[in-house]
Amino acid sequence: MTQPAKIRPLIGIPAGYRAFDSFHVHVTGDRNVLAVIEAADATPFIVPAVGDRLNIAETLAGLDGVLLTGGASNIEPHRYGGAPSRDGDLHDPLRDATTLPLTRAALDGGVPVFAMCRGMQELNVALGGTLHQYLHEVPGRFDHRRDRTKPFEEQAAPIHHITITPGGVLEGVTGVTEAMVNSLHGQGVDRPAPGTTVEAVADDSTIEGISVDGAHTFALGVQWHAEFAATSDPVSIALFAAFGDAARERAKRRAAA
User: Fold this and answer.
1) Residue 211's domain is classified under what CATH number?
2) Residue 223 CB-half CA count within 13 A
3) What number of other Cβ atoms are within 10 A of residue 234's Cβ?
4) Amino acid 34: pLDDT
5) Which candidate in 161, 185, 227, 249 is catalytic?
6) pLDDT for the residue 6
7) Whole-model pTM above 0.90?
8) pLDDT at 29 over 90
9) Which of 132, 144, 185, 225 is catalytic?
C-alpha cells in the first residue's frame, strides 16, 4: 500500500535589509535556515524586508509558520515610544515595517510564530510592549552582550542560567524549569506586552521568554539564540520540534482546504 506523501510545512523567515558592497541585500543567518530544515523538519522561505510593499495576507496564506530571528540591528525606538537612540546604533526600518505587521497578522490568523532574540523583542513590540535599549545600563542587570574578543563558538555557547515558569507554556514544551542559554543581546524586554505571559527569566530578572495568551497554536518567544544548538541542545531541539509540529498541523489544514 502506498504511503501518503509527508507534508513538509513552509516556514517564513523575515529577512534583514543590509548594505553589501554597492548593493542592498535581504539576508538571514544560515543557522536560521538550517534550523528550520534540520530541527523543525520544514522548508524555509525568506520573506523580503519590503515593508508595506509586502502583501501580508497573500504571504501568510502560503505559509505554515513564521520564524522571527535575531539580527545585528535593533528595533527603532519610536515603534514602542522609547527615547531616541544614540549615534551609531544600528536600525533596520524596513525589517521593522515588515515584521511588526506580519507578526500581528500571523497571530490573528493562527499561524505558528517562534521568535528568538531580536525576534522576541519584535513579538513584544508588535503587541504593544516596550524594550530596554541599553540593558547593561539598567541597575542590577548583567551585561548580556556577546564578548566579541572570543571565537564565535564561545560567544554562542550557553553562558547563564534561566528559570522557566513551572506549569507555563515554555515548561510544557521543553519539560524543564531551568536551563543554561547563550546571551548575545544588548536590548531586552522592559514592559511585557498586554496579552503576553513571562515564561522565563535570567538570574538578574531579565525576561528570557514570553508566550501569547490564548494562542490557538505555537506562539512563543525566547531571548536566546536557539538556532545555534537546534540539533544538539535538548531545550532547543524541543522548541524547534514543537514549532515544526504546529506548522505541520497548519500545513495539513491548508492541504485539506
Assistant:
1) 3.40.50.880
2) 36
3) 12
4) 98
5) 227
6) 75
7) yes
8) yes
9) 225
Domain hosting residue 248, numbered range: 10-256
Residue 249 is among the residues annotated as catalytic for this protein: no
CA–CA distance from 160 to each of 93, 98, 157, 163 (Å)? Answer: 31, 32, 10, 10
Residue 14 resides in a domain: yes
User: What pLDDT shows up at residue 7?
Assistant: 82
- Residue 123 lies inside a defined structural domain of this protein: yes
| H/E segment holding residue 46 | strand 43-47
Q: Please give the Cα distance from 12 to 21 (Å, whole number).
A: 26
Annotated catalytic residue 58: no
**If residue 11 lies in a helix (H) or strand (E), which one and from where to where?**
strand 10-14
| Residue 150, domain member (yes or no) | yes
pLDDT tens across 135-193, in order? 999 999 999 999 999 999 999 999 999 999 999 999 999 999 999 999 999 999 999 99
Strands (E), 85-244: 113-116, 131-132, 160-164, 178-181, 188-189, 196-202, 207-212, 219-222
225 is catalytic: yes
In the predicted model, is pLDDT for residue 2 greater than 70?
no
pLDDT tens digits, residue range 194-215?
Answer: 999 999 999 999 999 999 999 9
Q: Which three cell numbers stand for residue 78?
A: 519610536
Task: Output the pLDDT for position 32.
Answer: 98
Domain count, the chain: 1
Exactly one of 76, 117, 122, 132 is catalytic; which is it?
117
Q: Establish if 186 belongs to a structural domain.
A: yes
> Could you tell me the three cell numbers for 173?
514544551
Task: Report d(CA 223, CA 205) in Å as an integer.
Answer: 13
Distances (CA, A) of 75 to 84, 91, 118, 123, 218: 11, 6, 8, 11, 23
